[in-house]
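Write out this protein's structure.
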Amino acid sequence: MGVILGLGDCNMGGANGYTGPTYLDLVAEALGMELRNRAITMSTTREGRIIFDEEKEADLVVVAYGLVDSWRTFRYAPYVLYYPDNPWRKLARKAVKKYKKLARSLGLNRLLGQKYVVPPAEYLDHLDHMAQSSRRLLLVETPPHLSETFRNPDIRFYNQLMAQIAGRYDHVDLVPLYDLIEPQRHYLDDIHLNRAGYQLVAQEILELL
């Protein structure tokens, strides 16, 4: 039995009350493989790289980051990792959240500028690191945001960065998702997938494999 390692954010793990099988559950069942779903809500490729280095022996690695990586935030806001987590980091994230909210309310984002949570060059470096050290890697695009549509150009941009990595290696494939997802059919809310959405992603992955 082979091992599937899942690295991603809320849409890989299931979020907002979703209790059905995720696309990785469906893929693992169809292929008869062991699943290690290490998805963490609000996480980025920074956490993903740490977890990846802990579990390099997976036969198939599925990566789905970009929603948080591509978020634009106050230029001088620090980032606190979600993994490995501890009580101090949880407190620090709450403090940073209040700090960023204050910065927005004071107009500091406009005056002093914004940045991506994970800059494009760093995002590419994390994905390339995983590609170089994996046996088989699938990169899953981030779907569009239905309400905060101003974010979608950045989501598309980070999906394009993913595609760059997929184009560099024969053992890496991109799972196209952005243009396949249908708002009225595949969403649980503004960004999270429902059962039909997970089935769609699983189908795309199985066809690639």
